[in-house]
Write a structure and sequence with these properties.
globular; Trna Endonuclease, Chain: A, domain 1; alpha+beta; six-stranded mixed β-sheet
Amino acid sequence: MVNTARQGAAFERRIIADLKQHGYDCIRSAASKGAVDIVAVGPAVPHSDHAWVRLPVLFVQAKLSKPVISPAERLAVQDLALRANALPLVSWWAADETTGLMRVHYRQLTGPGAKDWAHWAPGKDN
């Protein structure tokens, strides 16, 4: 039987692999018990008129099975993201509604309440 810490670490590595596919450079905060588990720096991508834009820095709180975090965790992630001009995200592992295959899902935290969130995905205009 795999312990919770190992399952969490394995899931964090899946998040990193998912984000790296979209050009993000990631840092995992192993066993930190801090506000965020992963910091991901977005790549520069071409925009219009030969200009480049950088995708946002992501602060990710990983939850293995449910994207529910406590009010204190939500506040900590959002506060840290605000101070760093980053995007506060919660990720979890679940079946895709369309394919039924297991994959990483993301929610962008948009406010203080449990229902204050929006779907987010790397590589999409969010």
